[in-house]
Amino acid sequence: MIQLSADVAAILYTVSAILFILALRGLSSPETSRRGNYFGMIGIAIAIVTTVLVAGLGGQGLLLAGGGLAVGGVIGAIIARKIPMTDMPQLVAAFHSLVGLAAVLVALAAFFSPHSFGILGADGLMKAGSLLELSLGAGIGAITFTGSLIAFAKLNGNMSGSPILLPARHLINIALGVAFFFLVGMMMSTGGAEPWMMWALIGVTLILGFTLIIPIGGADMPVVVSMLNSYSGWAAAALGFTLGNLALIIVGALVGSSGAILSYIMCKGMNRSFISVILGGFGGDTAAAQGDRVERPFKRGSAEDAAFIMKNASKVIIVPGYGLAVAQAQHATREMADTLKEAGVDVAYAIHPVAGRMPGHMNVLLAEANVPYDEVFELEDINSEFANADVAFVIGANDVTNPAAKTDPQSPIAGMPILDVDKAATVLFVKRSLSPGYAGIDNDLFYEDNTMMLLSDAKKMVEEIIKAL
């Protein structure tokens, strides 16, 4: 039986931490994301092997650890191969729920077997500091678990994407928050002698995860996904202190801080504060009013019309949105772009920070279709180019192209940075219908004089355009 010394373990944990940092760096760009994934995989493998060897497990322990890794690895590989890229947001939310559940289970294991974790004091009771770490890990993990399940249900269509506004929801959340901290204080003062307190704490935070996320509308789901990612990191970091595991502390801190930064970037992309997202209800009032929509005249076109306009254009900017993901039209879109480039048309792609249902959703889809990285631009890098474009070809990017963000101070998306597609000479908008987006409001762009609506499934319409070209 091999057992590593503390010094060797610390060196190996440091190596794995460096690899995690390199993984995050690599994942910041589609061009280096594959390398970033490799760094992360190697880093976590080193951390797991080191942890198993430090524990000095016997044959049975190694068998259990190896069996758990094998089962989890096989399930993960099967899911990764079968899940289409369009379902990636809900897959991420589902995985976050498992991280939260793992944190709760580890906290329970430490609470009910404190002698195994070295957290007992001289008086035979659990140390106050360890109880604080366990409580935070379990509480944040429980919030992450139920919150991620709600996010999954909303993203997967099992639950309405509209905000579900509970009566007195703010008072309920405040009461649950106070109850959580009260229970933490009681546990620390009693040394964890009353097990019911831990169960009550977990129950309170499970409910809190539900009440926090269910009022948040689908338009804010990118922020929710990154926020829950951050929560799972902090839960892991808190338990890392209890377990005395350096790798868990480092990984948790990296995940927690990067998720928090990403949440900030998403909120900035929607001109919303983090607190306003958590308090929920994006588009809640306006969505209810959509039944009274007034029919307005719009210009409807065909695939032949779109092909003629784009073939005679000098510059075309393609704006992908969730409609492209739902229809899985990324490969057809790249084929259309290649056909246009062969005809001498300059083609570029414009990505809004919150397009799709999670950060980077559109970038991943375009990368899957082998769209050249140098043709894909973020909002701040390409927005000024729309005024020089002959055509803005929008595929389902509804809220992020809505001029109401600039023209209507009362709009729920007022002030949100949008892609200025309306400044292009012609806007070709592919959408199944004129229905509002996740923010629950009508898009004024549909009715502009320079807009032609191509009402159809995105993949079918793009394929017809390719034939016409």
TrEMBL record:
Q: How does it sit in the membrane?
A: Multi-pass membrane protein
From the UniProt record, list the reaction(s) this protein catalyses. Answer: NAD(+) + NADPH + H(+)(in) = NADH + NADP(+) + H(+)(out)
* Keyword Ribosomal protein listed: no
Question: Where does the sequence pass through the membrane?
Answer: 6-24, 36-55, 61-79, 91-112, 132-152, 164-184, 196-216
Query: Per the annotation, which location comes first and is thus the protein's main one?
Result: membrane
Kindly name one Pfam family recorded for this protein: PNTB
Primary enzyme class: translocase
Q: What is its EC number?
A: 7.1.1.1
Q: What is the annotated localization of this protein? A: Cell inner membrane
Ordered alphabetically, the record's keywords are: Cell inner membrane, Cell membrane, Membrane, NAD, NADP, Translocase, Transmembrane, Transmembrane helix
Record-stated family: Belongs to the PNT beta subunit family.
What this chain does, per the entry, is described as: The transhydrogenation between NADH and NADP is coupled to respiration and ATP hydrolysis and functions as a proton pump across the membrane.
Protein name, entry field: NAD(P) transhydrogenase subunit beta
